[in-house]
Structures are given as C-alpha cells and as structure tokens.
Design brief:
CATH class of the largest domain: Alpha Beta
CATH architecture of the largest domain: 3-Layer(aba) Sandwich
Number of strands: 22
Strand content: 15-25%
Radius of gyration: 25 Å
Number of domains: 2
Distance between the termini: 38 Å
Structural class: alpha/beta
Largest sheet: 5 strands, antiparallel
CATH topology of the largest domain: Beta-lactamase
Shape: globular
Helix content: 25-40%
Length: about 475
C-alpha cells in the first residue's frame, strides 16, 4: 500500500506543471512588491492534502531553499514515524555504594539519554527521589554521563552573534534547563530596589540580589540593566530598573555552557539540603552498575508540540540526535543525517531529498524545496500519525509563533513558521471554507524577507477562501 501511495503522489507531482496556476494571487504579488522582494526569491505551493489533484498554485516549487524552522517538520515527522508517538527518553540514576546513616558510601551517577525537556522542576524531582532513598550526603562524587550524544559544541557567536540567546544552546545528552537560567525582577518600592531571583541556583556563581529602582518609562529594560555576563562566576548589573516595568522575566543562556549541568546539579542538590563530600565531574556509568531508578520524559507526541508550536531549536536537535542514538547506540549528527535521508527515500519516493544540517532549521546550509516539503505534509496527511503532527503546529491567530496573526484566516490553518535573517517561511495545513484541506508551503529567501510576512499571510487568506477570489 505504501508503494502505491508513493507512486501515485509521484505521478501527480510529475503531471502538476501543466495544471498548476503559476500567476500569484494579486494580494500576494502586491505585498511582495511592497516588500521589494522579487518573485525569483520566492517558492510557493498550494496543493490538496490528499494529493488527488494537481497543485492549485505552484511557483518555483522545485527550487531548493533555506526553510528556516519549517525544517522541523522533517525532523518531527521522521521521529514520529520511526520512534513512535509514545516514545519517551529515560534519564537514569545509578548509586555505586551502600547507604548508611544518610550517607551514600560511593558515587552517584546521572546518565542522560537526550531528554529534550529536563527542566528545573524535573531535576528537582530527580534529586528528591535520591533523597527519598535515604541519601542526604554523598561521600563520593556526583558523576554526569553525557556519552549518549557526540559532543556538539559550536561557538554560539558563529550563527548570529547572540551567544546569550537560549535558542543558540547546543544539544547535549544531559540537557538541563536548556543550559539557561531565568532572572525575575520584582520592584520593591519601599526599599527602592528591584529584587532579583535567579533560577536554577548555579554552584560557584555569585548573583547580584538587587538593582536600584528608578522612576520613568519601561522602555528597553534589559539594556537599562547593563548586565555584565563576562565573568562566568559572577553576574552583575551596572544599571537600573524602572518601577513602571512591574515584574519581568528574562531567560538567558549561561556564558559557560559546558559547565552548566554540573553547576545546576550541585546548586540544586545543596539548596535542597544535600551535602557533597566529593566533587562534580563527568564520566561514564560503569558497565557493571545497574540503574537504581529512571525518570522518564514526556512522550514524543507531547514533546513535538513544544518544538513546533514554539519553534524550540535545541529540543529539535535533541530529537534529531535521538534518531541515531536509538538506531546505532550513540547520537551523532552524521548518523542522524544518514538515517533521515534513508527514511526520506523510503517514504517520499522520487521527491528531492532535503539537505540536512542539524534538523532544526537553525542553519545557513539546510535546504528543501517547497514541492518536497509539500510531499512530506501529504504523506503525513495519509498517515495514522497525522493528528499528532497537525496538533503540534501553531494555529494561525490562536497560539504558538502564529498567535500574533489576525484576520480572516484566524483559526483556519495549522502552520509551522520559520524565520532567520534573510528567510521567512510557512508550511502546513489550511482548512478552506469549502471544506477542502490544502497543504501550503511558502518560502522567501531574500534580504527583505521579513518584510514579506504580509505576502505570506495574504497567501494563507487566499487559500482559506478556497481560491475563489483572486
């Protein structure tokens, strides 16, 4: 049956050029002209989701483009199809020694296996389970085992010069809290300061507890704080905080990401009243040592909702590396690229395969054509996994990265957005007024790409109206 579906969709794709509308809808053309984006920088396709008719609109659909975060559709659908929607990641804890009078006479090992969402609350619960076994003091070391993934440690400045943005965090087999911390600023008018709360506590990091409170408008409060992150052991503020800002929350990637997990585990352990006689270090769990217990993640189906609704890059990379971890015993970028390419050839037939980098779309080298992305979405539509993939996509005008879009299309499309410097994209499903379901893919690669957003929104509205008005 799968072979028949692939052959049928391939036939439709080959025949489509004779029937597809090539002229863009006037509203789309006008918006592109206003944005000063030439048609040669745009790739579009609108086609029935069931693949039973030729595309209703196709423009440069066979040209490979940088898709930005719409590439997450490839990673998440491949993961759903190969790992299954109920797949979970297990973080295991191993105790090398006996517990006597509240003391573990040996080392405590924590082995990560790629959990994309091992956030602060879940780390606290993991360590609380250790204490529930009677451990208050660890006589040996706490050893973090991150060997399930190869080390992927690019310089976060290399991508966009924003090393403190959480989206630039590198994947890690033991990814804790996205290698990021959260600062919460709370005005205290009586004391004329803004209190600063820091989570998670990081061992060895001094945190300024307050900043001077001033009157005035709340403009760029982050710039006004004059944060100094140059010293990984000390976070300071040289500026002020406006009382009119109220309470604000600021998420930041830690400046020394390689040490974040160790600092976070020790910091939380000590804050919980735990003692550590040894030290924090990295290593591997001895083969002879079974797991004392494990902590499971959310299911893959739940995880991809965070990835696609909110375009979480590091979570997507965690899923991407998990593909080769499950198939080959270790997660590597090269291994996952090869696996997805093989999966693509099996599932998509003659459709041009994507050029993969890290599977998240946070890349300057990843490429896929609008036609190939349409083929993937049509394949997913015919799959039992369609509800899981579709429900992970932002609903236009309702939630996720597309909540801001208002208009006639609000609530009528599930679309993954993509945005980089010089790139803007949309891809997913449109629910037309006629009751027809369409796959829509739109990609713009141009220095003025961000100004082309109204053109993509006009395309969505045109599709919702079922192409009856041009």
């Amino acid at each position: 049956m799968r072979s028949f579906t692939i052959l049928f969709l391939s036939f439709v794709a080959l025949a489509s050029s004779a029937y597809a509308q090539s002229a863009l809808p006037p509203a789309v053309s006008t918006a592109l002209a206003r944005a000063k984006v030439p048609l040669e920088a745009v790739a579009l396709q609108v086609v029935a989701a069931d693949g039973q008719t030729a595309p209703r609109l196709s423009h440069r659909a066979d040209v490979p483009m940088n898709p930005a975060s719409t590439m997450k559709l490839v990673t998440t659908y491949a993961a759903l199809d190969t790992l299954g929607p109920a797949f979970v990641w297990a973080t295991t804890v191993h105790m090398d020694g006996t517990v006597k009078d509240g003391t573990l006479q040996g080392n405590l090992y924590i082995k990560g296996q790629g959990d994309p969402k091992l956030v602060l609350e879940r780390l606290w619960l993991l360590l609380r389970r250790v204490q529930g076994l009677g451990v208050k003091t660890i006589a040996g070391d706490i050893v973090l085992d991150r060997s399930a993934f190869e080390t992927v440690a690019p310089n976060p400045r290399d991508f966009d010069g924003e090393p403190l943005r959480p989206y630039n965090a590198a994947p890690d087999a033991l990814l804790l809290n996205f290698k990021s911390f959260v600062l919460t600023f709370v005005p205290d008018r009586a004391a004329q300061v803004a209190r600063v709360n820091f989570e998670p506590p990081l061992a060895g990091v001094q945190m300024q507890a307050s900043v001077p409170l001033v009157n005035g408008d709340c403009n760029d409060y982050r710039a006004a704080l004059k944060a100094d992150m140059s010293d990984a052991n000390r976070i300071r503020f040289g500026g002020t905080y406006s009382a009119s800002c109220g309470e604000k929350v600021w998420s930041l990637a830690y400046t020394e990401p390689a040490s974040f997990s160790a600092r976070a585990v020790e910091g939380v352990w000590r804050e919980m009243g735990g003692q550590l006689a040894g030290r924090m270090r990295e290593g591997q769990v001895p083969n002879r040592l079974p797991a004392t217990f494990s902590v499971n993640s959310e299911t893959l189906a739940e995880t991809i909702r965070d990835i696609n609704k909110f375009s979480n890059n590091v979570m997507a990379q965690q899923v991407f590396l998990t593909l080769s971890l499950q198939a080959k015993g270790v997660g590597t970028v090269a291994g996952s690229r090869a696996l997805v390419q093989d999966w693509w050839r099996d599932r998509m037939g003659i459709a041009q395969p994507p050029v993969l980098d890290n599977g998240s779309g946070l890349s300057r080298t990843e490429r896929i054509s609008a036609e190939a992305l349409s083929r993937l979405l049509q394949s997913a539509w015919a799959s039992p996994l369609m509800p899981e993939l579709m429900s992970s996509l932002p609903i236009v005008g309702v939630d996720g990265t597309l909540k801001r879009i208002k208009g006639k299309a609000s609530g009528s499309a599930h679309l993954k957005s993509g945005s980089l410097r010089d790139v803007v994209a949309l891809a997913g499903y449109v629910h037309a007024l006629s009751g027809q379901r369409y796959v829509l893919v739109a990609i713009v690669n141009h220095p003025n790409a961000q100004a082309a957003r109204p053109a993509l929104e006009a395309l969505v509205e045109w599709s919702v109206r079922d192409m009856n008005q041009r």
